[in-house]
Design a protein that fits this description.
Number of helices: 6
Structural class: alpha+beta
Strand content: 5-15%
Shape: rod-shaped
Largest sheet: 11 strands, antiparallel
Number of strands: 11
Order of helices and strands: HHHEHHHEEEEEEEEEE
């Protein structure tokens, strides 16, 4: 008896010593996970900043590229205008040259006529330098008198008409030449103005190209940094997941019944969710997915998909975050995801909640299927055949490939086609279907493949 008391005291002493030790381990673990998640938060913020830079530069690049295309178009139009102006100037130059030739020819004609007049005057001078009257009075007879009078008139009239005609032509040609030169001057000014605009556009285009190159470089840098941060985020998430998996194994090993206490994990997750929601200026709402058709026809067509098949669970998990715990305040798992059940691996988690515990939607979505006909609400060693093993259940579609299933319910409060917001009560737990006792079968699927629901927390 005394030996027994000694052993008992020793055990009690060990328990007393172990309690603070366990407490310190828990605190240390909490600090570790906080450190990991703080790093994740920082990386996430960096990722958001790089993503914003990436989006901004993409928008700027699109604007600058569009502006560059517009500049190139304007430059092309101006170049065509300058070419057309040059052609017009060339035509005017040709016209001016032709008018100059005509003026030169007219001047030559006048010179020739003047020369001819001089020759005639010389001939008259040789005849005696007589005046027109002397020439006429020097006639030998009447016939000669008439001839001399006509000669003097003819010579003076022809020369006068010829010179006047040439002068008239020269006046017209000179006026045309002046008009052409005026048009050429205006075209030269227009060409200079167009060339100045063209030079300005080319300068603007070059500056825009430089800005575009800077944006391309900035965009590539942001993309590179975003890829780097995304890799670090993935590594950090793996560390966090590994932490909780190791924590769950330790708790399961420490529990005599093999039950896993996920209180710390879920409450820690919920606290972080609240912090993120309070710090966020705007919250995103889930997209409503409409699907309304009769329950009976859907269950007939999808019986193979709905049934609680015992295929090997896959590790294909989607992007996590946003789920709420389906059993508020109850954080004990009686079965984990992938648990070996000899002939199959468990494709969900079982939450050990008492009969008629509240069950809520983990995420907003549309109710796809339900079963409400199972009355076998007690623990059993085999399936009663109701709800393909789930008994009374709710199956929800959350969009983007995600679905959740809530099985073995006592009562179902929702209907197929109904849109349910996250956290809304959808039923109460029980032991319907293939269930050994009261619990919630909580299953998650991504693109039809089962994955660990705990990866959402």
């Amino acid at each position: 008896m005394r030996k027994f008391k000694t052993i008992l005291c020793s055990l009690l002493s060990l328990c007393i010593i172990a309690c603070p030790l366990a407490s310190s381990i828990t605190v240390s673990g909490a600090e570790d996970i906080d450190t990991l998640e703080n790093k994740l938060d920082k990386l996430t913020k960096q990722s958001q900043e790089y993503q914003k830079t990436l989006d901004d530069t993409k928008n700027d690049i699109s604007e600058k590229e569009a502006y560059s295309e517009a500049l190139v178009g304007k430059i092309d139009v101006l170049s065509q205008k300058i070419n057309a102006t040059n052609q017009s100037i060339n035509k005017l130059n040709t016209g001016i040259a032709q008018k100059k030739e005509q003026i030169d020819k007219g001047n030559k004609d006048i010179d020739s006529q003047v020369d001819a007049l001089i020759d005639r005057l010389k001939a008259i001078d040789k005849a005696g330098s007589a005046s027109d009257l002397e020439i006429v009075l020097g006639a030998k007879d009447l016939s000669d008198f008439i001839d001399k009078v006509n000669l003097v008139k003819t010579v003076s009239n022809i020369d006068k008409e010829l010179i006047d005609n040439i002068n008239d032509k020269l006046t017209v040609v000179n006026k045309q030449k002046q008009e052409l030169e005026k048009d050429k001057t205006e075209l030269d000014k227009e060409k200079d103005s167009l060339q100045e605009d063209l030079d300005d556009l080319n300068g603007t285009l070059e500056k825009n190209k430089e800005l575009l190159q800077d944006l391309y470089t900035k965009n590539e840098n942001a993309k590179s940094k975003l890829d780097d941060v995304s890799g670090k985020i993935a590594d950090q998430e793996k560390e966090i997941k590994a932490y909780w998996e190791a924590d769950a194994k330790k708790r399961a090993a420490a529990s005599a019944g093999g039950h896993v206490d996920v209180t710390d994990r879920v409450t820690h997750y919920e606290k972080r969710q609240q912090q993120q929601q309070s710090s966020s200026s705007s919250s995103s709402s889930s997209t409503k997915k409409s699907s309304s058709s009769s329950q009976s026809s859907q269950q007939t067509q999808q019986s193979q998909q709905i049934s609680e098949s015992y295929d090997e669970p896959q590790a294909d998990t989607p992007t996590t975050g946003g789920f709420v715990w389906p059993c508020p305040g109850i954080y004990y798992l009686t079965a984990e995801f992938g648990e070996d059940r000899t002939t199959y691996a468990h494709g969900a988690i079982d939450i050990g909640c008492p009969m008629n515990s509240t069950v809520v939607a983990a995420e907003s979505g549309t109710v796809s299927y339900t079963c409400t006909s199972c009355t076998h609400n007690w623990g059993k060693a085999g399936s009663c055949g109701c709800g393909w093993g789930f008994g009374n259940f709710v199956w929800m579609d959350h969009g983007n490939g995600k679905e959740t299933i809530y099985g073995h319910l006592t009562t179902v409060l929702v209907s197929p086609g109904q849109y349910i917001t996250k956290g809304t009560v959808i039923g109460y737990s029980g032991s319907t279907g293939y269930s050994t006792g009261p619990h919630l079968h909580f299953e998650c699927r991504y693109n039809g493949v089962k994955y660990d629901p705990m990866s959402e927390y």
